[in-house]
Design a protein that fits this description.
The chain has ten helices and 14 strands. With 390 residues, the chain is of the alpha/beta class.
Length: 390
C-alpha cells in the first residue's frame, strides 16, 4: 500500500512581502514511497493565506469555473468527490457558455467572484488561433496578478512510463514574456511581437522558486533561459536568478539553455528538481514533463498571486476531441481540489481525497483510457467515492 506520508501534499500558500509572495512549504507530491525526502508536516501551516477574506461559516466559498472541453465532466467528478469527502466548501459555480468568458461582462463577474472568495477551481479554456481578442487565461492571470504557476510532476508507481523516479517542480513566470500580447505589423508582411522581461517580475519569480525549494527540502534550482541569443531579455532573467541564488548558498543552482533543457528532460529527467523559467518556456517544459510522467490528466497545478489563488490542471488541456464522450481523466482536477484544500488549511479532508485517488490507481482495476484502462469518467469517479466511503 502507498505510504500516507508520500501522497500528494501540495500546500501552496503565499506570504506577503514588499517584493513578492513567497512559496509556502508543501510536502508536495511524490506519490511513490521511495527515498524522496519531504518537508515536516509541521511546516504546512507556516505561511498565511494569500487572501485576507474572512469566512463567516464553516463552509469556505470557492469560485468554480468548469471551463471548456472535458472541463465540465471533470468539474462534475470534482464536486462528487468533494461531496463524498464532506469537504467544507461552498461552490460559487459559473454555468454560462464558456466561450463567453472573454466578454467584458462575463469576465467581470468572474473577477468579482474571486474578489469575494479569493480562491478558484478552474477548468481548461482554449484560445483558437484566429481568436481576435486576448486569451481568457492570460487576461485572468494579469487581472489577478497570478505571477507564479507551479506544477509538480512525479511518476506514479502504478503507471508505466519510460522514466522512473521523476520528481520535479516547474515554476513558471505567469504574466509577461512572449505572452505580453504586444504585436503589430510594421509594414505589410512584417510583424513585430514583443517579449517583455522585467527585473521586478524576474526577481519575484526567482525569489518564489528559491523560497519554494528552501521550504520544501529541495536541493537544486535550474534556471531555464535562452540568454545566449536573447542577451538582454533572457540575460536579465538569468541575472536575476543568479542574484537571488547568492542568498541561498545551501541550494545548488544551475542555468540551462531551453533547447538543451528539453533534450535533457526527455533523456534524463531525474536530474531536475525545481525549475524556474519565463512564461513560454514554462508552458513547453510543463507539457514535456507531464507527457513523460503519464499525461495531462494526472497532474494538478496552482497559480499564486496578489489577487488570490487559482487551481487547475497542471497542463491545461481542454481535450476538445473527447469532450462529452465520458473519456476525460478527472485526476488532475480532483487533485487540484485537494491542493486547494491544503491551501485553505483543510489538510485532513485533502489527505482523504488523495488517499482515495491513489488507492484506486494502486488497485489498477479502474482506470481511464489515457492511462491504459477502459473506465469512463463517471466510473473512475465512482471508484474514488467508493474508497472514501470505506
Amino acid at each position: 500500500r502507498l505510504s500516507a506520508s508520500r501522497l500528494l501534499r501540495p500546500s501552496l500558500r503565499a506570504g506577503g512581502s514588499a517584493r513578492a509572495l513567497h512559496a509556502a512549504p508543501s510536502s508536495a507530491f511524490p506519490y511513490s514511497s521511495g527515498s524522496l525526502s519531504l518537508s515536516p508536516p509541521a511546516a504546512l501551516d507556516a505561511y498565511p493565506h494569500v487572501t485576507s477574506v474572512a469566512y463567516p461559516s464553516p463552509n469556505v466559498p470557492v469560485t468554480l469555473l468548469p471551463g471548456m472541453g472535458i472541463g465540465q465532466e471533470c468539474a462534475e467528478a470534482l464536486v462528487a468527490v468533494f461531496e463524498a469527502a464532506e469537504a467544507p466548501v461552498e461552490f460559487e459555480r459559473f454555468e454560462s457558455d464558456p466561450t463567453r468568458y472573454g466578454e467584458d461582462k462575463e469576465f467581470e463577474k468572474v473577477v468579482r467572484s474571486m474578489g469575494r472568495t479569493g480562491v478558484m477551481l478552474k477548468g481548461p479554456f482554449t484560445t483558437p488561433v484566429r481568436h481576435p481578442g486576448t486569451s481568457f487565461n492570460i487576461r485572468l492571470r494579469k487581472e489577478l496578478d497570478l505571477f507564479a504557476n507551479v506544477v509538480q510532476v512525479a511518476t506514479l508507481p502504478s503507471i508505466k512510463t519510460r522514466h522512473a523516479g521523476v520528481d520535479l517542480v516547474v515554476i513558471r513566470e505567469n504574466t509577461e514574456g512572449e505572452y505580453s500580447g504586444l504585436e503589430h505589423e510594421v509594414v505589410p508582411g512584417v510583424v513585430e511581437s514583443l517579449k517583455i522581461i522585467s527585473e521586478a517580475n524576474s526577481m519575484r519569480i526567482a525569489e518564489y522558486a528559491f523560497e519554494y525549494a528552501k521550504r520544501n527540502g529541495r536541493k537544486k534550482v535550474t534556471a531555464v533561459h535562452k540568454a545566449n541569443i536573447m542577451k538582454l531579455g533572457d540575460g536579465l532573467f538569468l541575472q536575476c536568478c543568479r542574484d537571488v541564488a547568492k542568498r541561498y548558498p545551501y541550494i545548488e543552482f544551475e542555468a540551462m539553455i531551453v533547447d538543451n533543457t528539453c533534450m535533457q528532460m526527455t533523456s534524463r529527467p531525474q536530474q531536475f528538481d525545481v525549475m524556474v523559467m519565463p512564461n513560454l518556456y514554462g508552458n513547453i517544459v510543463t507539457n514535456i514533463a507531464v507527457g513523460l510522467a503519464g499525461g495531462p490528466g494526472l497532474f494538478p497545478g496552482a497559480n499564486i498571486g496578489a489577487g488570490g489563488a487559482v487551481f487547475e490542471q497542471g497542463a491545461r488541456h481542454a481535450a476538445q476531441s473527447i469532450a462529452g464522450k465520458a473519456l476525460g481523466n478527472p485526476t488532475a482536477t480532483i487533485l487540484a481540489g485537494a491542493m486547494m484544500l491544503r491551501y485553505l488549511k483543510k489538510p485532513k479532508v485533502a489527505t482523504r481525497i488523495e488517499h482515495a485517488v491513489m488507492e484506486v490507481f494502486e488497485d489498477g482495476k479502474v482506470r481511464t483510457h489515457d492511462v491504459g484502462g477502459t473506465a469512463s469518467t463517471s466510473e473512475f469517479t465512482k471508484a474514488i467515492v467508493a474508497k472514501l466511503d470505506e
